[in-house]
Give the backbone structure.
Amino acid sequence: MYKIIICDNDENYIKKLKKTILTCCTSKRNVQFLEYFDGTELLKNLPSPKEAWAVFLDAKMEDSKGKQVDVLLRNKKYDGTLVLYSENDAPTAEMIKISPYRYLSKMMSDKKLEEEIGEIIAEMDRNIALLSIEASYQREKVFLRTTDIVYFTHHRKGSVIHLTKEGQKRYTEGNVITTLGFKELLEVLYPVGFIIPHNSYLVNLKFVTKYNVQSEIFELDSKIFPISRKNISSFAEELREFKNGELKKQYFQIRHE
């Protein structure tokens, strides 16, 4: 689920942003909006980047003491995707210092706004791809990049993380376990290529090297995995979209990335 904050005292523009974001969100991920009409309330309730992937903020918003909310956001170390906007056609010097991902003008056309929102959503997905999953190894806390995770399996305390061959060299004395279950992991990782082809596995499509349609199996990082019969069609579709190419009718092979 995309969790997006919009902070503005203009309810009409909030509605416009929400409508445009929903139009541009082409993935199957749901969108949850948090709306604030007051800068002080936003600062009091600001979630972490893992809980709010993006903040859309009217650059003129101030807190109760008259301080600019965008500056205070950076002071609070919010490092999610920050988008500032105002009625001006160009950002001010103060806005540039904040280094938002994108600056929007309220005066831009609907077509241009859709283009900008599309790029913002892509940036959110890139940030998710770089997300670190908190886990434990030998009773010590570790953080693992999702780009190094090949697949997950179930564990009574959450999920076991299975890494690339290179990553496995660092964790040879036992399992690396996250407290997150498949449902929670999928909420975060679906947009960057993680799916459930079988109830026993949550896999990273980046590491699929072979797929045999007829035998209902696929190869993941040189290991063979089954596909649930009910998931065969959706697996093929998801893989096709992820690899951004057409499947051959019977069989295709992809180089390990």
Remarks:
- DSSP finds eight helices and 16 strands in the chain.
